[in-house]
Amino acid sequence: MRPWLVLHAFGIQFTEKLIPFDGFPESSQFKQTVAKYSPAGKVPFLQCSNSASPQADPLIIWETLAIIEYLVEQNPQFKIWPRNVALHAQARSLCAEMQSSFFALRRHCPTNIDADLPQIGRLIWRDKLLVRKDIDRLKTAWRIMLTLSKGPFLAGEFSALDAFYAPIITRIQTYKLPVSEDTAPYMQRIRQHPSVKKSSKDAIESAVFRDFEEPYRFNSKDIPDPAEFFVKESKKSSFLRDLKIEIRRRHKRADRTRF
Ligand SMILES: N[C@@H](CCC(=O)N[C@@H](CS)C(=O)NCC(=O)O)C(=O)O
């Protein structure tokens, strides 16, 4: 999503190839397709033609930050990073922090753009201290950047930094995690950004239901009461993973429906 947002927001021409996701085992269609292009075996990657490439064309670039740096170098006319040196340095620090941190939030609140899970979010908020810490850190970082840059986006105008944080904003929205009054308008601005809206719309339209990923799409009668289940079962591991296992167990009758 993040390189896509930069490409779209700055009007850089590109062609998107959707690789359907069916899991991460080496035998999955996803992994086998990605392996044909990217040595890291992950998405996103950028395939481009570049005569300076030491390898045979096309040039493949993987890792979000590396893709964005390449876009910055190839498109110096756009302010993909802020021009101000201090803001630029801080924006890069925060992008690197995004890559290397916020593990609790990622683990307990997996991305699901078209789901609305406030009930699960309330339980995560109540029981997962590290998720609360992650949100706290996000709020502080955003507050500082918005004050330094004077907004409306984190580094002034929309930049790679906002693209980096956009996916986490959609997670916060899915689980309705509490945010402070001073950061809520920024999150709203991101959700309303045309590129974020387009990316979300495309993601919803192309989404394929996979029961192993999305336990909340089962009939509600099949879902254990989260309050009771959360306390009993999820001390040792991820709430959603435990919930998936429990639902699969209860769901042997297999009369599920999509909503
Ligand atoms: N640090 C990488 C993370 C890439 C990543 O983990 N991509 C996931 C999908 S969002 C993936 O392809 N995972 C496949 C796997 O782990 O095998 C980046 O920012 O590009």
Structure described in brief:
The protein folds into three domains: about 1-75, no CATH class; about 85-205, Glutathione S-transferase Yfyf (Class Pi), Chain A, domain 2 (Up-down Bundle), CATH 1.20.1050.10; about 215-255, no CATH class.
Explain how this protein is built.
Helix 1 (2-9) packs across helix 10 (194-206). The protein has helices at 2-9, 29-35, 64-74, 85-100, 103-108, 118-127, 129-149, 160-175, 184-192, 194-206, 226-233, 239-250; strands spanning 45-48, 59-62. The protein has a two-stranded antiparallel ribbon. The chain folds into three domains: 2-74, no CATH class; 85-206, Up-down Bundle (Glutathione S-transferase Yfyf (Class Pi), Chain A, domain 2); 215-253, no CATH class. The protein is globular and about 55 Å long. The model is unreliable at 252-259 (pLDDT under 50). It has 259 residues and is mainly alpha-helical. Bound molecules: glutathione. Glutathione is lined by residues 24, 41-44, 63-64, 99. Glutathione (GSH) binds at residues 24, 41-44, 63-64, 99.
Strand content: under 5%
Uncertain stretches: 252-259
Major sheet: 2 strands, antiparallel
CATH topology of the largest domain: Glutathione S-transferase Yfyf (Class Pi), Chain A, domain 2
Estimated helix fraction? 40-55%
Q: Indicate the multimeric state.
A: single chain
Number of helices: 12
For the termini, the CA-CA separation is: 25 Å
Q: How many whole angstroms does the radius of gyration measure?
A: 20 Å
